[in-house]
Design a protein that fits this description.
Blueprint lengths: L6 E11 L5 E11 L3 E5 L6 H9 L6 E6 L2 E4 L12 E4 L11 H11 L9 H7 L15 H13 L5 E5 L7 H17 L4 E5 L2 H7 L2 E6 L2 E7 H6 L12 E12 L4 E6 L2 E6 L8 E7 L3 E4 L10 E12 L5 E8 L2 E8 H7 L6 E6 L3 E2 L2
Parallel strand pairs: 3-8, 3-9, 6-7, 7-8
Antiparallel strand pairs: 1-2, 1-4, 4-5, 9-10, 11-12, 11-14, 12-13, 14-20, 15-19, 16-17, 16-19, 17-18
Length: 366
């Protein structure tokens, strides 16, 4: 069985010279959950990959302390080499050996550690990554998504304590990304395995992550549970058109006549396009702030079918000086509306106001 960790702790200070003109400084102090997916999010050059490499022991110049479930991987006196850190690492490119077939690529890590495949969870992982039909194929015969699934299987078969993933979808086209996302979700569901997932895509964060660390210029801007960070309009993280809430819901009704499902969350329910989800299924949905308009009354003569009574919790400025961010409470759930300041003035929107949130669009993430 893959191991379960209580916590990952990393306090690091690292400096690197990328070229003669530019110096990069990483300075972080993190305590990460011991299970689920932690997204390390930020723009290119923010230090995401450098942090991941430090955790893996690939940057020997990094100073500080790294501990996993109380086991010290690195401190001022000791530096545990990469092969002893019990990490699985998935790079942007699959980096498979071209002269080895799929099965041989998957087993490579075990052989390097001197372990027998018979004592591993090899068959289970092959089944979960849906690779049974490709075991004798070579990397050149696989699609980009298939190669990345092999890379994930290779990282898992060594039964790592932590799975590190460095933008595993970045090298894939849109179709291949959609192909591999369900497999990433299955890791989340099948294993009590902490996954640290580097990405600059907020769509991937919203779909996969439980916890998020936002980085900029080598430092941590903010961190916390995904829903808390995404819903915080005072956060230093600016997502622009991607700003919105991610909430957990359950499918409770199917309307076959109109091809809709009704999803219940803590505070109400939403009608959503039917994508084949069965009754009782837990789903994650995303509501973008730009898709939430406000009204003082519940207007029935409208095309918007999702209208929920809400209370204004707080107001925040948008980078666009003409726009306003409004944090809304529906039961115990928070969502965000992005409206013009003129509209807010006309409606007399203020903290504590009761309004109707008119939700124009809802996306099912999983």
């Amino acid at each position: 069985m893959i191991k379960v960790l209580d916590e990952i702790s990393a306090r690091l200070d690292y400096c690197s010279l990328e070229n003669t003109q530019r110096e990069f400084q990483l300075s972080v102090d993190l305590h990460l959950p011991g299970k689920g997916i932690t997204a390390i999010f930020g723009e290119s050059g923010s230090g995401k990959t450098t942090l991941l490499r430090c955790l893996a022991g690939l940057e020997k110049g990094a100073r500080g302390t790294i501990s996993v479930q109380g086991k010290v991987w690195q401190d001022d006196k000791n530096f545990m080499p990469t092969h002893l850190r019990e990490v699985g690492y998935v790079f942007q490119e699959a980096s498979l050996f071209p002269h080895l077939n799929v099965r041989e690529n998957i087993l490579f890590g075990l052989k390097r550690l001197g372990r027998d495949a018979g004592n591993s969870n090899l068959n289970q992982i092959i089944e979960q990554m849906d690779l049974g039909d490709f075991l004798l194929n070579y990397p050149s015969e696989l699609s980009g998504g298939e190669r990345q699934r092999v890379a994930i299987a290779r990282a898992l078969v060594v039964e790592p304590a932590v799975l590190l993933m460095d933008e595993p979808l970045a090298a894939l086209d849109t179709n291949r990304k959609f192909e591999i996302l369900p497999y990433l979700e299955s890791l989340h569901e099948l294993y009590e395995l902490p996954i640290i997932y580097v990405t600059h895509s907020i769509d991937e964060v919203a779909r996969l992550a439980d916890y998020i660390v936002v980085m900029d210029k080598g430092k941590v801007l903010t961190r916390g549970a995904l829903s808390e960070v995404m819903e915080d309009i005072s956060s230093p993280v600016f997502l622009g058109e991607d700003m919105g809430a991610v909430i957990e819901a359950e499918v409770i009704e199917s309307d076959q006549d109109w091809h809709l499902i009704r999803a219940k969350f803590d505070g109400g329910h939403l009608w959503i396009k039917d994508s084949g989800d069965k009754l009782g299924k837990k789903i994650r949905i995303r509501i973008l702030a730009r898709d939430v308009s406000l009204a003082l009354e519940n207007h029935s003569n409208t095309s918007i079918i999702n209208r929920l009574k809400a209370k204004v919790v707080s107001l925040g400025n948008d980078r666009d000086p003409s726009m306003l961010l409004v944090s809304l409470e529906i039961g115990n759930t928070l969502i965000i509306s992005r409206i013009s300041k003129r509209s807010a003035h006309q409606l007399k929107i203020a903290q504590g106001s009761e309004v109707w949130a008119q939700i124009k669009g809802v996306a099912i993430l999983r």
